Structure to design on (363 residues):
C-alpha cells in the first residue's frame, strides 16, 4: 500500500511478496478485531484455546503494516528526486492521485456507514473527514492520512539522506528515534503493570517520525543489505522468539489495559525486521512461474483491497453474529468471504478503466 500501483515489468519481486503477505495480514488482523476484540466480554468469556488462537492470528496480522512501511521506505527513500521540478512531478503523479482516491473512498465510507446505521450521514462531518479534521470509526482509516503525509515528506528526507556519504548518520537518527518511540513505550507497559512510574523523555522528539519513521528508515536500510551478514538460522530463531514474546505481550496488554499489541512494541519490530530480511533473500528464480504471476497480481491490487476489505468485514460480520456458531468458525468464514469478495469486487472495478484509476489507484 505504498505508491499508486503502476503496471510495469521491472518489479522487485520480494517487495511484491511482502505486499502480498501484508494485505492478507491486514485482513487477518481486522477479522480478529471484528470477531474477538469487538468488546471486552467477547474476549474475556472466550475459552483458553480461543484466546491463544486469536492471539496467534492477531500477531501474524499485526505484521502487515510494518511490511508495507518497509516497502514504502525502500521505494520512496531510494527514489531519485534532485530538483523541485522532480518533486512537483512526484507529488502530481503519486500524492495527488492517492489523495483523490482516498477522498472518493471517504465519501463511499460515509454513505456505507449511514446505510449500515453506524452513524447518520452528515455533510459537514464528511467535509471534516475529507480535510482529515475528524476520523471515521473504521479500523483501516488511520493509515491513509499517515501515508499521504509520508509522500509529502519522505522525498525531502531522501534528498537529505543522500547528501551524506554513508548510512552512519541515518543509523544514528534511527537509533535515537528507536529509543524515544519504541524502547520507552515498551518499558512503560511493563512499568505500568508493576505499578512503577512511567518514563518520559522531555524534549520535542516528534520530528523523528514516530514508529512510522522507524519502519520507513529500516526498510531503506534493509534494502541496502544492512543485515546481510546475519545467518538465516539466527534470523529464523529470533523471529520465533519474538513471535512468542509478542503473543505474551498482547495477552498482557489485553488483560490489564484492554490495548492491543501496537506497532511501537520492540518485539513486533524485531519480528517484522527478521521476516522482511528473510523475504529479501528468497531466490525467486526457482519459484514456479504461475506463483510469481499470482504474487505480482495480488501485490498490484494490495492498495485496492485495503480500501475495499473493511466494507465486507463489517457487512459480513454484521450477519455472522446472528448465528450461534463457534467464534473460530465465524472468524474463518469472515476471512474467507472477505478475501473472495474484496478481490472479486476489485477485479470487477478493474474492468472499467476510469474506475480502475479513481477507485483502485492503478494506472
Amino acid at each position: 500500500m505504498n505508491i499508486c500501483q503502476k503496471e510495469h515489468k521491472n518489479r522487485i519481486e520480494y517487495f511484491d511478496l511482502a505486499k502480498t503477505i501484508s494485505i492478507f495480514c491486514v485482513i487477518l488482523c481486522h477479522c480478529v478485531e471484528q470477531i474477538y476484540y469487538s468488546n471486552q466480554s467477547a474476549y474475556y468469556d472466550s475459552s483458553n484455546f480461543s484466546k491463544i488462537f486469536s492471539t496467534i492470528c492477531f500477531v501474524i496480522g499485526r505484521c502487515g503494516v510494518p511490511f508495507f512501511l518497509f516497502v514504502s521506505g525502500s521505494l520512496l527513500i531510494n527514489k531519485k528526486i534532485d530538483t523541485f521540478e522532480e518533486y512537483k512531478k512526484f507529488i502530481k503523479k503519486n500524492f495527488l492521485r492517492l489523495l483523490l482516491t482516498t477522498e472518493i473512498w471517504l465519501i463511499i465510507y460515509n454513505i456505507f456507514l449511514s446505510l449500515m446505521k453506524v452513524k447518520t450521514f452528515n455533510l459537514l462531518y464528511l467535509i471534516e473527514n475529507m480535510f482529515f479534521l475528524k476520523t471515521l470509526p473504521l479500523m483501516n482509516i488511520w493509515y491513509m492520512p499517515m501515508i499521504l503525509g509520508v509522500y509529502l515528506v519522505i522525498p525531502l528526507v531522501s534528498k537529505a539522506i543522500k547528501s551524506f556519504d554513508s548510512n552512519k548518520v541515518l543509523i544514528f537518527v534511527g537509533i535515537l528515534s528507536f529509543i524515544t518511540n519504541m524502547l520507552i513505550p515498551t518499558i512503560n507497559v511493563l512499568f505500568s503493570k508493576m505499578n512503577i512510574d512511567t518514563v518520559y523523555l522531555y524534549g520535542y522528539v516528534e520530528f523523528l517520525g514516530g514508529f512510522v519513521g522507524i519502519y520507513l528508515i529500516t526498510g531503506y536500510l534493509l534494502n541496502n543489505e544492512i543485515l546481510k551478514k546475519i545467518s538465516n538460522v539466527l534470523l529464523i530463531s529470533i523471529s520465533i522468539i519474538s513471535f512468542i514474546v509478542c503473543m505474551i505481550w498482547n495477552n498482557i496488554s489485553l488483560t490489564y489495559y484492554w490495548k492491543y499489541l501496537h506497532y511501537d512494541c520492540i518485539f513486533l519490530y524485531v519480528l517484522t525486521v527478521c521476516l522482511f530480511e528473510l523475504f529479501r533473500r528468497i531466490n525467486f528464480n526457482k519459484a514456479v512461474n504461475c506463483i510469481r504471476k499470482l504474487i505480482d497480481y495480488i501485490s498490484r491490487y494490495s492498495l485496492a483491497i485495503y480500501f475495499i476489505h473493511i466494507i465486507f468485514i463489517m457487512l459480513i460480520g454484521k450477519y455472522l453474529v446472528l448465528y450461534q456458531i463457534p467464534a473460530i468458525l465465524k472468524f474463518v468464514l469472515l476471512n474467507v468471504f472477505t478475501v473472495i469478495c474484496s478481490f472479486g469486487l476489485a477485479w470487477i472495478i478493474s474492468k472499467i478503466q476510469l474506475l480502475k484509476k479513481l477507485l483502485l489507484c492503478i494506472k
